[in-house]
Amino acid sequence: MVPHLETPPSEALAGDDVPTWPAVYSLFIASSFLLFSAVRGWQLRETSVKLKPASSSPVKLVTTIAFLAVQLSSFVKNSSAVFDIHVLSNAISSLAALVFCILSFIEHQRSPTPSTLLVLYILACLLGSGVELLILPPSFTVGSISLPITNICVELAVLVFECQKKDSAFLAPYQQLTLEERAGILERTFFLWINPILKRGYRLNLTDADLPRAGKELSSEGLRRKILRTWDQRAKPERTTTLPYVLLKCFKGPVAAAILPRLFLIVFRYSQPVLINISVRYIDNARKESGSTEEGRWLIVGALVVYVGLAVSKATYQHQLNRLEVMIRGALVSLVYQRSLHVKNADYEDGSAVTLMSTDVDNVQDVGQMFHETWAQVLEVIIGTSLLATQIGWMWPIPLIMIVFCTRVSRYVASNLNRKQRDWSVATQKRISMTVSMLASAKSIKMLGISKVIQTKVQSLRVHEMAMSKRLRWMMVVYNASANALGLFAPPFTIVVFAIVSRSRGHQRLDASTAFTTIALMTFISHPANMLMTIYPRAVACMANFERIQRYLLESSQEDNRADIKIITPEVGGSEFEEDTSSNALVGSKISVQYPSNTTPILQDINFQVKAGSFWIFSGRVGSGKTTLAGAILGEVPLSFGSLTLSTKRIGFCPQTPWLPSSSVRDIICEEGDHDPEWYKDVIHACGLEQDLDTFPHGDHTQIGSRGIKLSGGQRQRVALARAVYARCDILVLDEPFSALDGATENHVVQNLLGPTGMLRQNDITVILMTSNVQHYALADRIVILGDSRIQLEGAPDDVLHSSSQILKTILHDKEKANRQLDEPKTQQIPKSSSTDTAALNLTRRTGDLALYGYYLKSVGVLNFIGLLCFTSSYSFFFHFSQYWVKWWTESESDQTWFYVGGYLIFAFMAWTTTNGLMWSQIIKIAPHSGTVIHYSLLKSIIGAPLSFYSKSEIGTLLNRFSQDIQFVDKKLPPSLSGFVVQAFKITMQIILLLISQRRILVTLPFCVITVYFVQKIYLRTSRQLRFLELESRSAVYSSFLETVDGITTIRAFGWQNKFSSRNIIELDISQSPFYLLMCLQRWLNIVLDLLVTGIAVSVISVSVVFRGTMTGGQLGVALNMILLVNTTLLSLVALYTNLEISLGAIARLKETIQETPQESGPEEKGTIQGWPSAGAVNVQGLEVSYIPGKLALCDINLKIEAGQRLILCGRTGSGKSTFVLSLLRLLDPSSGSITVDGINISDIPRSTVRQKCFISVPQDPFLLADATLRFNVDPNEHYSDEEIVVALKKAQLWSQFSRTEQNGHQTSSTDPQPTAPNVSEILESTLSALPQLSTGQQQLLSLARAVLRAQPPALTIPYTDQISAPTQIKPILVLDEATSSLDEETEAMIYDIIQQEFTDKGHTVIAISHRLGALKKGWEKGRDVLVRIVDGRVEWVGDLGDVIDGEVEGEEGVGGKIREIEGAGGEDEGQSADE
């Protein structure tokens, strides 16, 4: 409370020297406190107690009582005087002190934080007491101020104990509150609550576990609920502003919370030029001996209030914006993720949603700042212009005229910005999409030998992206030239005009107070005007991002037109079905499906009625519609006509291409719920996973990597099948679930699941099996054969079996356990360690790495960086020296006016020219150059990594390098580097001019330097780590999102949308924590530096008051104007330096990835040999391959494959067949032994040559790029003509599929003898996604077409022909890795016919992995074709197919007959030579 100083007795009656303002001030704050205390007491009346019993602080109670005693003492001493304002003030203050004591006790028990009201009141009391003591009238003695001093001491003690934390006394429910939620008003204002994190980050490496989660208001779950509710309530029809309006409506409270501190910020900002004007006039008057000491003290108080108020209001405003930014980010990410769970035709390889979640959300999350800055800057321009009019009169419109001119340029930029921003975003999206496809299909890319092609493709997209960015960047250069013209020319023009007019009116010298006040005001006019012009194009670009997000949110949703069988009428099923539908699980009536891109229906008039607990098989050749029907049953494919009713929409699903998230085997299988040990054990046994789990490093806790990359194809299928069975759904849909299994494993799985005593039969689960295989027909209750869009045959197994040809699988029983080992190091720790935890041990996260500057500057280019330095230094000199030029002008003679006018304008023009050069250097030269160079290095490193690298790396983490980190290089690092250099030169010039103007401030320089050094050092150690954790946690969010989009069909089938949404919320919460803390840490840094500048400003004015008369008004004006600039520059310098250091974290990760990623190429590679391979003879001697040292996956393999021979590899899933193929292609290096082709050891040949020239591969998983053209998918090297490509597609019977598409209104028929050239070219140049959808089998056919094309000499010269003559044309070896696993019997036979004609008959060696041996009988030539059985990584048996099949497939049981079991055949063929 403000003490009322006791006057001497001789002056007690006069009272003239006793100021009344302390009494008025005390009365005002005490009355206000009493009013708010009543409100606060009402709020606390029903609030529960939050502290433990007996947790009251005795010291706190004593200090509050002492505070009451001091107030009562003051009241008693003055109560004998005549009743006046002083007595009334003392009485109300005493009452307020009593209420303070009561409220303090209640708040202590019922509030988790120190009382805001009590702390603000005691601060107000301290402020009044301190000011009155500072401005003491000379009539008061030292003894008369003992009571006020005592009062201040007591108030300080009360403040200290009132701000005391209550952490240790909280009851259990309130111990989970975050640091910020438990902090008081002072801790939140000055960000003291973040000090524990700063301390820990300075000493130790931070991990996610060390960071407190964001508070309740920022929780991702709460944000998700709010944004979804608001989005659902949006106005319709939607407009382009719908999404921004939804955000405003959703967060109207947080938006409004920033208004008040922004208004205070305006008030304190515009108090600075007023303070400058008063200070300069005071100094000028002091030189004339007319300035009073009391006025000088008030100047010091005013400076303290202005600069402290500026620091606090700025920190509060920025913090409110930061909270709003976190809310917007969390809401939009949740909205996009939630939309991905319901969007139609979601595709993993479509990078649009990933780009939305990263680039677009990042670009719009600061829309709250743009909103507030828009109205605030308009208000600042109005206020600044009004104040300017008081200084220069009618000339005030001069800056407004320039603003209007520059705004026209800004409007032109904005009109062209939207389209260019959209083009850049689209180019980024295409590159990200291609990158995702590249990372997800790394194995197939390497097998095909097209790594360099894909690298070139992705890099070309990057170059195109940079070209699109340059179009936008040039617009920004033009805009910056306009905006800088306003800031640099407005002050000189205004001062020059004012000086000329003043001179014409007889004023011989430019007035210092008017000049420097005008310059300060011009800063406060031009800066907000510049900001407005900056916001306009940013807002336009932001709207483009909003439109992209909104377009995705409004895309058509999944149309689930399935009905509940329990509530339909009997007529729905159709008249041909029985009326009693209560026992049915699934009923389809007249189902028709036709895709928009197809001219004929995929399915037409399909009818079926599936009883609950029955087993139905839907069969047919490739492209007959099996997968489409499965999609319709799951609700993924909308029906064009007809109806589909089910007993439940929760359906177990095992797709043909298994979707497996990155997790452990057990977690994937037990996705449905809690772990049931007995059921889990039964499922594992039934799915044949026991042997595999025994060989895994950590059993069922083994991490399988992204998309199950560490598992074989058969293992992936069985894990997915086990997950579907474990879920115990009433209906189970299986789409070719056994295609990658060997015969023995398949027989085991089928018998244990689908046999008469199988798990699914015993649990009355309805099973729908989509398959091209007839082997298990006998187990089904009903079989449906699809063909030509219709049901061709339906009936019981016996009826159908006698009407269909048969291709069987050979059942090879393996008695031994498979010895397939995962590519994962054996460790004792079972839980998976995340990349974040591993990287947390990196010391450079805290201390930084100077080598990163050199690495980044190398990518920038030496000449580019030198140009940046030249432009920056020149700009800093010309801009700042003009201030001192004005100081000389105010002290010059009148006849030199024109000299100073010309000099001032020249300085402005040179500053404008050099700053334009600076912008050109930064965004046209540095940003694109560094981004292209680093992206190329990263791409080259990743594409050249061995297969083991991909098995150990998460796709989300790698994608984060190509998206988030590269975005830092594109958008964050160049302005941070440029800005830091600019601010470094600026601060140097400002300090020089400040010291010249006020030399006594030199004594504070060491203190300021030391303070800034330690502040930034403490800040950087923590901020680096927070930025690292934030970026790494974003990787987890991206990985989670990508996995969700990849498996959306499976997720929706099981009904797991809410479960995965909850997981995304958890990942997002983890990501939001370092993101929010980093912004809070920046606010901490800003307020510390603001308070430092406050000390400098108060020191300058104090020195000027104390030593008044020894300096001129011009010197003080320069000093205070420099302080204005120093304040901004110092904050910018440290912020940009820290941002540069933080952003260099992206460079650190990129550098580590580029330099530490292992590469396939080794020193043993010597070059290529022309004409090789000329025959295709393969000799394998003593081959041993291991994934883990000491654990052999292949052991002592000896095979001799003659030229032109066909070698078929068979064996149990995981026995080592794929490992052998990977060794041939040099994706795996042998531990010992050798592989030679035509006498050349392939270890001496570059890997790219082996894969491109020596082998032609057809991987098990077809590699197709949906966003690439049909031509690129068939001929990625672009070596073949249109005619050659069409011929290859016709051989694979796919051309008719593509040529059915309507082209320019004309339907091209497959019966056309020769399609016209324009149609052919148009089809080949169409993206695969725009052509008719391909089934999985058709995708394998397209892969075969690619192989057929490569086998023939192209019309164009390609690398592997080596320009050799036709007689020595090379004969590459064909390698098939389960290439026919997804094909029906007819298509499979056709495939082998094509292979026979295009490869075998032409002398090519063929090496194939196959479990389906029956189809090989046709065309089998004894002596040429060899069957090899691999068991446990060893060649167990080599022989002829006839030894296995002859005499067995035509038995009495017809197609239902069994194939003879082979046991122990390996001992009969000791030589293991394929030519036997």
From TrEMBL:
Q: Where is the composition biased (Acidic residues)?
A: 1466-1476
Give start and end of each ABC transmembrane type-1 domain.
263-541, 862-1141
Q: Which residues form the ABC transporter domain?
A: 586-813, 1178-1457
Q: How does it sit in the membrane?
A: Multi-pass membrane protein
The entry's cellular-component GO terms read:
membrane
According to the record, the residues making up region (Disordered) are 1300-1319, 1453-1476
Keywords of the record, alphabetical order, are: ATP-binding, Membrane, Nucleotide-binding, Transmembrane, Transmembrane helix, Transport
Q: Please provide, alphabetically and separated by semicolons, the GO molecular function terms listed in this UniProt record.
A: ABC-type transporter activity; ATP binding; ATP hydrolysis activity
Compartments reported by the entry: Membrane
What superkingdom heads the lineage?
Eukaryota
Q: Where are the transmembrane segments?
A: 20-39, 59-76, 88-106, 118-136, 394-414, 477-501, 513-533, 855-878, 898-920, 1002-1020, 1084-1107, 1119-1140
The principal localisation class reads membrane
- PANTHER family documented for this protein: ABC MULTIDRUG TRANSPORTER (EUROFUNG) (PTHR24223:SF345), ATP-BINDING CASSETTE SUB-FAMILY C (PTHR24223)
Kindly provide the name given to this protein in its UniProt entry.
Putative ATP-binding cassette transporter
Q: Which organism is it from?
A: Hyaloscypha variabilis (strain UAMH 11265 / GT02V1 / F) (Meliniomyces variabilis)
